[in-house]
Amino acid sequence: VSGAAVADHPLATVSAQRIDALLDGFAALSAPGPGVTRLCHTPLERQAHDVFAATMRELGLHVRSDAAGNTVAERPGTRVGAPAIGTGSHLDSVPHGGRFDGVAGVVAAMEVARLLVDGDVPHVHPLRFVAFAAEEGARFGRAMNGSGIACGALGPADLDAVRDADGITMAEAMRSVGLDPAAVAAARWDPTDWAGFLELHIEQGSVLERAGVGVGLVDAISGSTRMALHLTGRASHTGGTPMHLRADAMAAAAEIVLQVEGVACDDRHRGTRATVGRLTVEPGSITTIAGAVDLSVDVRDVDADRQRATAAEIVGRASAIARRRGIGLRAEMLADAAPVVLPTWVRGVVADTAERLDVGYRVLPSGASHDSQMVGRIVPTGMIFVPSRDGISHAPQEWTATADIAAGTDLLAAALLELDRRLAG
Ligand SMILES: [Zn+2]
Q: Which of 22, 92, 174, 206 could form a disulfide with 107 if both were Cys (CB 3.0 to 4.6 A apart)?
């Protein structure tokens, strides 16, 4: 099969109905409550992977799962021994999140696979459709765990190092759903076995919607530094303790929260985002001065140096506040991922394809972390964004129109085949 014949092979049209049905099916795999709750390394996440695996097997694809919980379906290429081109995203969610984060990219991958199979479309390289495990950092404080293992950023020792709110380590959680944390080294991808990767994802911001553009091509993905700040004051009676004799961990936390916001709002930090999203207060009583507060701090930036400097500056300012108030402070690093600049040539292939299909696009950075950040360490990677209504994500209101996912999937399919053609040489 010549490269030209591969690219010219007509693809059937993406089915909005099938996309909706797949999205509905995954959204139904949720713990009770508003939105979708399908935390990593839970039976619900495994069920979602089972649905993905079963659907891909029905299409005749070869499906394998690894010790990290990732599921990979492969359609062989026409050239024996050629490295693979991949696409996919993740199937886990945050608590009370939406039905599109991660899932949109997996559903797009499933639909691309169906188009290729239904149309009997040949490709030179094997195409791999990937559902990553444990992308969200909500449960353990560390994101991109499945892709991190596959791409060599995490090993077995890292799985004992993080715990969820119930004190369960990631390794324990993995064992409880039948995964083997001791064997994750075998889940590592061989870079020479891969030629390229494209991830479709919802934007989780409002740039595309405001611009009235249906597709975004990502040039860089923000890094993130995540810390816990443990404040220790003195719990005592709110009535009996005079104001000047207090060591109020809550009041110190309040000052620190505003400093975290403030540091990211000054002129030196245009584009930096810093957030305290969680406070854990002990004893958490209306009649007791807070004796201890744990704060989460999350710093995001597309500039690696500034990201680390901002995190250090936050710890410095928090220390000064704690000292002044007679409060103990211990800073703990939970996770640190560098920003990733995605290769221009991969984006160029997607952009050329969009122009050929007459699809308008806009180039933009990603503020959120994505599996592509990990995949990009070892495989040339690109990302396609589709619009998020009102820019909302990680909430039940998260929404992307089926037509937008369908248009993104059309582009994804064509771009994967274009990558296949160009890489075939
Ligand atoms: Zn995601």
A: 22
